[in-house]
Amino acid sequence: MSDDARPLPRRRASEIAGIFLPERRWGNYWDYFYVREKLASDPLYPGVLDALRGSRAPLLDVGCGLGLLAHALHRDGQALPYRGVDIDQAKIARARRAAQRAGLARAEFAAADLAREIPPHAGSVAVLDVLQYLSAPAQRRLLDAAIAMLTPGARLVIRAALDDEGRRGRYTRWGDRFAHLTGWMPASPKHYPRAQALRDIFDQAGLSASFAPLHGRTPFNHWLIVAARS
User: Fold this and answer.
1) Lowest mean pLDDT segment, chosen from 147-156, 166-175, 211-220
2) DSSP label of 112
3) Which domains, and CATH codes, for the chain?
4) What is each CA distance from 186 to 32, 58, 126, 182, in whole angstroms?
5) Edge-to-edge strand list for the sheet holding 107-111
């Protein structure tokens, strides 16, 4: 995965977005338009699909939002047992409705405040666009817990905005603050991790890890990190 990473094809993005259409014509179309443009512009999901391909371990999606990863996995033919957790109870409710509408029988969702509780799990873990919303100690607790969850063949997949004083770092900080001000994200960013600090954590745990830029066509300083037991 590199800077030329591509998002999902627009047709696939539109198919998934259609699951989020309101039941009535005069209903709220916010989720539909958000999902369609998110999937068609952000290379996150193809990167995560590639990282998980070949593993059959159950997946915990930490900070799952609307559960888009569950839909992307389903469309990609990866039939993994999936559990998504997020602090936003309203998003969890909408994620459940969308999963039921799409017939995702192996997908479960629950509300959880990751700064206070980390649900038990054994298998792979996805931590996508979450770390910056936790304090440094809370990040370490989450990463230690996620590493402890990894079973043979499982993977820890992270998309993180890394600490960077360059232009991309500034755009990332602005974008995260804007998402909070508009109410899309319930919390404001607290701490952007450094790449070396994450590498040290993985080395201490005996994991091999790869770091690849996942900027795609966005201005943000996003990286895809995949770690597994050596």
Assistant:
1) 166-175
2) -
3) 44-229 (3.40.50.150)
4) 20, 27, 20, 9
5) 107-111, 82-86, 59-62, 124-128, 156-161, 222-229, 207-213
